[in-house]
Amino acid sequence: MRMKMSHLEISNLRVFFPTDDGLVKATNCVDLQIEEGENLGLIGESGSGKTVLGMAILRLLPKDARVEGEVKFNGRDLLSLSDEEMRRVRGREIVMILQNPTNALNPVFTVGSQIEEVLRLHEGLGRRSARKRVVGLLKKVKIRDASKRAEEYPHQLSGGMKERAMIAMALASDPSLIIADEPTKGLDVTIKREILRLLKTMTETKSMIFITHDLASAADICERIAVMYAGELLEIARTEDLLNDPLHPYTKGFLGALPSRGLKPVRGTCPSLIDLPSGCKFHPRCDHAMEICRREHPPMLQREDGREVRCFLYA
Q1: Is the pLDDT of residue 107 over 70?
Q2: 191 within some domain
Q3: pTM over 0.70
């Protein structure tokens, strides 16, 4: 069996945004490892910090964002690289499939020209060679009439085809890590299934962080799942273990809110990232909260079976 290496190592990552209302604590104490060739699902409610984490890895956050900690990719700390060094990593070794391809694709350029730009920038290809590769990439993501579609503008493509074009663009430079941010959001069930199948096939030899609030989608294509809440990770486990035996009360509630499991939503709402509760960030919504949960912030506990959980119930 081939030994896997840690491809991406995130250590004590914190991201803060100053606002007129106060400091937004977007991510806090995030520790996460992605192995070579692994697909990891990052799930949580809207506003939990999932997208911010993805943007922080690629250093795509606003200039006023304060970022602390380490993000090591193949042993290099991305947060310490110069802007020029980071540009060589971004889009070539690590790519991000952004939410909402309608907004991510430039409406005034053809789909083919936008993919071609990636190839010419990162691969140094001439126009003719790049155009040939573009058509090949569009065929690879199962877009019919690829030559014709390459000449069309984003508004001429359906939602599913735009998502496929975004995946083709992500694959253009043959990256080793893909960060997919809600790639199936807004798609109907049939198209969503096709996109998930495509992502699973396209990432067989790559690593992927699959950001979503849709646990069922993450379970389809990810070997492990990390659960995020109020800017921090609460549980990390193999997909099968998390689905069959969730540990953290929030994970249990998240699963219970699924239609297939009774549609029982977690009581209360996510806290403001400006005014977070003391102690455990989930304690105001937790039916198992103890006095220590209100007082102290729980560490992420490493269990003998390899699972991780941030909860005093397992201390």
Answers
A1: yes
A2: no
A3: yes
